[in-house]
């Protein structure tokens, strides 16, 4: 299972704080593509974290069971 | 893992208590404190009354640990503390508290600025600006 977390404006767009997805072997790129289509995230800017680290390059990254993905809009602490 | 996130506003008593706790550390000669306060911005004619903070806490705590370690490497500090609110903080209340202590004063100014900037840029915290009528918009750091 892959755990996906949504934050800020992305959580609002998805109407959810997260979900669990069972798609063994899916690439990060195709997962993000699916979620973008499902929640119409095209107009939003966000970074992606895999296992709590920001990922700059999605190409070729295959997800495995237990991975934790997060869709993170601009940080605005302070 | 050191505790950073506090529910609601950071009380002035908490800040005073933090200062008092350092009186037993006799190698310290200088403290510097940064306090972030929720500002009542006016956006398109509407007044901000509060900010509601949320965070990706697991990642934020890992990131904060890295930031602390890097500050100790860069600067000659005795200790440092970072606190940030979660949940709703009203205008005029404190939402962010950075406290840096060292032997001498030179290091504490630079270290405080470094820490404040790092937290704002690197830590996954999200602020929702709440208006008088409970409308809101997602805050963007300028």
Question: Secondary structure elements and their pairing?
Answer:
The complex is a heterodimer of chains A (78) and B (142).
Chain A: E1 2-6, H1 8-14, E2 18-21, H2 28-39, E3 47-50, E4 53-55, E5 68-72
Parallel strand pairs in A: 1-5
Antiparallel strand pairs in A: 1-2, 3-4, 3-5
Chain B: E1 5-7, H1 12-21, E2 30-37, E3 42-43, E4 46-55, H2 57-74, E5 79-90, E6 94-102, H3 105-122, E7 125-131, E8 136-138
Parallel strand pairs in B: 1-5
Antiparallel strand pairs in B: 2-6, 3-4, 4-5, 4-7, 5-6, 7-8
Helix pairs in contact in B: 2-3
Polypeptide structure, described:
The complex is a heterodimer of chains A (78) and B (142). Chain A has two helices and five strands. By secondary structure, chain A is of the alpha+beta class. In chain A, a hairpin with a 2-residue loop joins strand 3 and strand 4. By secondary structure, chain B is an alpha+beta fold. Chain B is 32% helix and 38% strand. Chain B contains three helices and eight strands; from the N terminus they run βαβββαββαββ. In chain B, helix 2 runs antiparallel to helix 3. Classes of the chains: A alpha+beta (78), B alpha+beta (142). At the A-B interface, helix 1 and strand 5 of A face strand 4, helix 2, helix 3 and strand 7 of B.
């Amino acid at each position: 299972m892959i755990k996906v977390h949504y934050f800020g404006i992305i959580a609002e767009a998805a109407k959810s704080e997260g979900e669990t997805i069972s798609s063994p072997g899916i690439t990060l790129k195709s997962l993000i593509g699916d979620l973008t289509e499902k929640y119409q995230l095209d107009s939003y800017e966000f970074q992606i974290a895999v296992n709590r680290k920001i990922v700059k390059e999605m190409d070729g990254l295959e997800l495995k069971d237990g991975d934790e993905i997060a869709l993170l809009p601009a940080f605005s602490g302070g | 893992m050191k505790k950073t996130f506090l529910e609601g506003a950071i009380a002035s008593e908490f800040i005073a208590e933090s200062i008092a706790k350092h009186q037993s550390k006799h190698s310290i000669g200088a403290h510097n404190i940064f306090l972030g306060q929720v500002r009542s911005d006016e956006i398109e004619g509407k007044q901000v009354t509060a900010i509601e903070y949320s965070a990706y806490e697991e990642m934020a705590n890992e990131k904060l640990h890295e930031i602390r370690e890097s500050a100790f490497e860069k600067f000659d500090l005795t200790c440092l503390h970072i606190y940030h609110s979660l949940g709703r903080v009203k205008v005029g209340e404190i939402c962010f508290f950075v406290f840096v202590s060292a032997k001498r004063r030179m290091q504490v100014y630079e270290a405080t600025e470094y820490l404040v900037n790092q937290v704002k840029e690197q830590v996954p915290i999200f602020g929702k600006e709440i208006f008088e009528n409970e409308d809101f918009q997602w805050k963007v750091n300028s």
